């Protein structure tokens, strides 16, 4: 077989090999065999010394043509493989935009915060301001200013966490009354405030007791504030919280910072007063404590009790939430079990 026949055979077989390449790696191997430094074409070039010099340019030309042809075919085949690879990747990584998305979970407001926010807006709408006293309170504001001197027996009503002689975890939000009374400028108008916040008592935790709970203090002081103002206000609060059909009643009570003092009951919203387990078969449920501000509280804060008077009330936010949502264990408020909390979730959309 002469050199030209050899070249022709190489061209045909080479093209066939390129066409049959199975993948890029295989194609690369074929390329090295055909046009690489130690490939078949190079080998033929090396054998040029064995042929007549007059033939050499022709052979060289032919070899170059075949190399160009191979290279062109190899490039085309390579492109095909690259393209196929891209298409495969695209197909595999295809995103179905019509699939339904994953729903994010909405958090829920804590039941006590629902009550708190609701009451705050309610009082703000009636012209009250909202104040926030410190949870680490002084004996001075928590007790002494509130007409509870050191040896007062009523101090036993609230078991206190003392930090030292003077500082304590407040047992009640009532100290806020003294703080605002001291600062209020009555020449600018009456004082109307609510003071929500956490309070602490040295109680053993069980279904109905907690060492920490939340109150909202209320105070209105002006000239000519009467007990009927208190009664009207409490009635509105009770109806706002527990329904417009509720009946209310006041019972005499005792608090050191009010005189007279009262407790308010609402007719049972479960049995409408007929008697059931919730109202302990009395038809009534105790909801808050209140009274006319004791003159000593006003005087302690430098307010002239012969000119000014007012009323105060204390709301138990945990108690309101318990009654409103039918919660049987106060500990549920503070253990943060999501199964409990998510019951108060607003509609998911
Ligand atoms: N501080 C009282 C308590 O913790 C609640 C209270 C009762 C507050 C009567 C008041 C009030 O302002 O007038 O038991």
From TrEMBL:
Pfam families: Phe_tRNA-synt_N (PF02912), tRNA-synt_2d (PF01409). This is Phenylalanine--tRNA ligase alpha subunit. It is found in: Cytoplasm. It catalyses: tRNA(Phe) + L-phenylalanine + ATP = L-phenylalanyl-tRNA(Phe) + AMP + diphosphate + H(+). The lineage of its organism: Bacteria, Bacillati, Bacillota, Bacilli, Lactobacillales. Keywords: Aminoacyl-tRNA synthetase, ATP-binding, Cytoplasm, Ligase, Magnesium, Metal-binding, Nucleotide-binding, Protein biosynthesis. InterPro entries: aa-tRNA-synth_II (IPR006195), aa-tRNA-synth_II/BPL/LPL (IPR045864), Phe-tRNA-synth_IIc_asu (IPR004529), Phe-tRNA_ligase_II_N (IPR004188), Phe_tRNA_ligase_alpha1_bac (IPR022911), Phenylalanyl-tRNA_Synthase (IPR002319), tRNA-bd_arm (IPR010978). PANTHER family: PHENYLALANINE--TRNA LIGASE, MITOCHONDRIAL, PHENYLALANYL-TRNA SYNTHETASE. HAMAP family: Phe_tRNA_synth_alpha1.
